[in-house]
Structure formats: C-alpha cells, structure tokens
Design a protein that fits this description.
47% helix, five-stranded parallel beta sheet, 484 residues, 4 domains, single chain, Transferase(Phosphotransferase), domain 1, alpha/beta, 17 helices
Length: 484
C-alpha cells in the first residue's frame, strides 16, 4: 500500500481527538505505538467513521476553553478527518480552511453518520431478537448497526435516511414483517437505493417464525399476501416479493445457542467483507480421547457418517467399538433409538449402569427424526428419561445444506469440544469477545477516572500557583512603589 495524504488526515484526526477529549482513539501501547486489544484491531478494520460515543467526549471537561460553536466545529472536523473511506477525507488545504481553524469561514456541510447495516424488523415479532443481535454485532465485530430502539429520529424520513446511510439492509424475516407498513417502506427505500440485502430467517416456533412453506407455495400468484399482527391477510407489493425471492436462497437462519449464534454473526460478517476476531486453533490433548458411538443406523445413517468423518479428521479423537473402555459415548438421537428391544437401547442402558459416578455421554439429535418428550421417551424407564433430560444435546447440522456450511462447521467444533478433543474456537467466541470488550471498557473507565483525578489535581496546583503569583505581583508592586 502506497503512502497517501489521506493517511495523514486520519492521523491528524486521531491526534485532534486525543487532544480535545483527553482519551486515545484506541487503547494502545505508547512505548511501541501498537494497538493493545484484538477488538480494537477488528474495530479499525471495520471502521466507517467516528461514533457518537467518542464524539460526546470532545471538550467535555468542566472548564473547556471553547464555545459551543467551536466544540461543534471540532466534532465536524473529527468526523471529516476520521472517515473510513480515504477518498472522503479532507486535504490539508481543506483542513486549514475549515471553520474550526478559520473562524470567519462558512459553516461546514453536515456529515451523516454511516452504518454497517440497517436492521429492519417487526417490533411485535422480533424486538428481543434484534436487541440481542445488536449487541452480538457490536461486541464480536465492533459494528455499528442502525436499530430503531437506539435512535432518536424515528420518523419515516429518519428511518429512510438510516437505510440510505447503511451498507447492508438486514431484514429479520418473521411472521408479520412483510405486512408492516413501516417495514415495507424501509424495504422500498432499500430497493430504490440498490442496497445489498441480507435476510436473517426466523425458524423457531417460539419466536414468530416466517411461514416459508406458504410463501414458496404462493409463487406465481398475481397477488401474494401474508398475515398481519391482527391475523388479517395483507398484500405484499410486487417489488418486495421479488426482493424476498431473490435473497431467500442466501438467507442465514437466526440461531440462539451461544456457539451457533457466534457462527451466525461470523457468517454475516464474512459475507459482507467485515472482520471478526480469529477462532484460535488449540492443540489436541496429549492423549487422544476414545469415543464409542451409539446410533440406530436405519434413521441416523447420514448423521453417523458425517459425524464420524468429523471425528476421524481430528487427531485428538479415536473411534473405538468397546463401550466399557471408551472415554466418551456419542449418542445419536433419532427415531427408534430407544425403542424397546433395540440394540441401541441395550447399549445406552449398559452405559448408564456403568457410569454410576461418571457421565461419558455426549448427545447429538436430528431435529427431523427426533423430538424431545416424544412418546418413546415418555414410555421409557426413569433412568433413560433422566439421561435424555439431563444432557443439552447438540442439534445436528448437515454439511450438505446450501448456504449453511457455517452451521455444520460450528456444530463440529462444539462436538469436538464436548468430546474433549480441545476447545477449538472457544476463546474466540461471542462470550469471550463480550468479556474482552467489557474488560476493555472497565480498564478505559479506570484510566479516565485516573486522568480526571490527575487533571483536577493539576488544576488545583495551577490555581494555588496563580494565587501565589498574584500575591508576589502585589508585593513586587508595593516594593517598587516604596523604592520610588
């Protein structure tokens, strides 16, 4: 990369921010001039411009020697200098001509805040989902999503401006979102401005899922409708129907379990060229984990084949046939697994009888052929019911699903972790990213508090010196008067 004056503009912005806010733009090691936190490196990689939180620190000191206009002009200068797009940064001549440095210059042209994505959703369906998604995007990718609950201007024009200022239009596709007038207007604005559209598909029955089967069946109809919040049929404009149909094939399913949510956000970022923290590879244990599989091949053949391939590729796991000596037992839940008289039920009972004080079972279930609290489970003995209820089974994610390979990869990492083959990716997950960000914020708060206390101390010392100087000047005047 060749040097360019726009790099100097960004550096000037970083210096001006620190001088006017008394805080660094990013936490850094001053001795080596390097960023400290991985999260800061990710944020810089995804940088669009300075955010409201940082701008709020500018000239915030109680005795800031600046007028309101100077403060606003300084904030504008920072927005201009710290643009993520180098082409949008000012030249040095433009900097010198800015009203912050040239008071009689014209008022600067407003710079609109930019967003990585605009999250469009139906409040009744997905307010909680979007609240969680907002923080996942913020903490894992240091992203700035436009979300109505965090904005002041919630007029139609304010929402449209948010769509125009966002790089990606992220639609949380739920039961009633296509029937919402406000959401339809947001979608139309995204279409008018040729925005990249990413659909986040809700499938869980507990969270107002989108009726994908009904939508697919309605293709080709002259008018396509969905149910609104009052369960009334509502027509969907043709341009929105086309937008949904064009983007459904590459939709990402919304997931809630931690490791799957982490993979979901990483996939969102990957598809739109945004950085996220690395998933570190952890070396396998010194001694491989031996694993024996319990499965009903008639209903779990494909699941067994895929998972055995995952396990065989890992140096930390060895498949064995002996249930008694295996370190872990991989239980594949599918239809018929606990049928009376089945070999798989006998194997499971054998494990439970042997594991009186030890739990070796790691369960994976196929949601297409297994349902918890099914009749087979209800009719089973107490020890079998307890074993199934006491394990948080991993959902099987087929690797053949188009556009969902990230889910299969996340499932594989979690399975290997549960089998004791090394917690691959655990240190780079969402919980860890949140913990790092929280620690960083706490450290910055402490640093700010220390600087504030030191500033107050210096101000007191300066006031005492000023008073001493005044006394000395008075005494000097008196001495001069007496000598004359």
């Amino acid at each position: 990369m060749k040097a360019h004056p726009s790099f100097d503009a960004f550096s000037l912005g970083a210096l001006l921010f620190e001088a006017s806010s008394r805080t660094p733009l990013f936490p850094s090691d001053r001795s080596a001039d390097n960023l400290i936190e991985d999260s800061a490196k990710v944020e810089l990689s995804n940088w669009l411009g300075i955010d409201k939180d940082r701008l709020s620190r500018v000239f915030k000191a109680e005795k800031a020697d600046a007028t309101d206009r100077q403060i606003e002009d300084c904030k504008h200068m920072l927005q201009w200098l710290l643009q993520g797009d180098p082409k949008q940064r000012p030249s040095i001549d433009q900097v010198l001509a800015h009203r912050f440095l040239t008071p009689d210059a014209d008022a600067p042209v407003p710079i609109w805040e930019l967003w990585h994505c605009f999250i469009s959703h139906a409040q009744m369906d997905a307010s909680g989902t979007v609240g969680t998604l907002y923080y996942m995007l913020h903490y894992l990718g240091s992203l700035s999503p436009w979300v109505d609950m965090h904005e002041e201007d919630l007029t139609l024009e304010g929402m449209k401006a948010g769509v125009r200022s966002s790089e990606v239009f992220l639609l949380v596709l739920t039961e009633t979102v296509l029937a919402s007038w406000f959401c339809q207007e947001e979608m139309k604005e995204a279409i008018r401005n040729h925005k990249t559209v990413q659909i986040l598909l809700e499938e869980e029955s507990r969270f107002s899922p989108f009726d994908l089967a009904a939508w697919t069946a309605s293709q080709g109809q002259s008018e396509r409708t969905v149910l609104n919040a009052q369960c009334k049929s509502t027509p969907v404009p043709a341009e929105i129907c086309k937008m949904i149909d064009d983007n459904l094939p590459k939709a990402i399913v919304y997931r809630r379990r931690e490791f799957e949510a982490d993979a979901m956000v990483r996939e969102l970022c990957k598809r739109h060229d945004l950085a996220v923290p690395y998933l570190p590879e952890i070396a396998p244990p010194s001694q491989p984990t031996t694993v024996c599989v319990i499965a009903r091949d008639e209903t779990a053949g494909a699941m067994r084949e895929q998972l055995q391939e995952v396990v065989n590729k890992d140096a930390g796991v060895v498949l064995v046939a002996d249930l008694k000596t295996a370190d872990k037992v991989l239980l594949l839940l599918s239809e018929g697994i606990i049928n009376q008289g089945s070999a798989s039920l006998k194997q499971l009972r054998s494990v439970l009888a042997q594991d009186d004080e030890e739990d070796r079972i790691v369960a994976v279930y196929d949601s297409d052929s297994w349902e918890f609290s099914c009749e087979a489970q209800k009719k089973s003995t107490e020890d079998i019911q307890k074993a199934l209820n006491d394990h948080e089974a991993i959902v099987f994610r087929p690797s053949t699903d188009d556009g969902r390979q990230h889910e299969a990869a996340a499932m594989s990492r979690e399975l290997l972790k549960e089998l004791g083959a090394g917690a691959r990716g655990g240190e780079g997950g969402l919980a860890a990213a949140t913990e790092r960000k929280t620690g960083e914020m706490e450290r910055l708060r402490n640093e700010l508090a220390e600087r504030y206390d030191r500033t107050k101390e210096l101000e007191r010392e300066a006031a005492e010196k000023d008073a001493t100087m005044e006394v000395m000047q008075t005494e000097l005047k008196a001495l001069r008067a007496a000598s004359s």
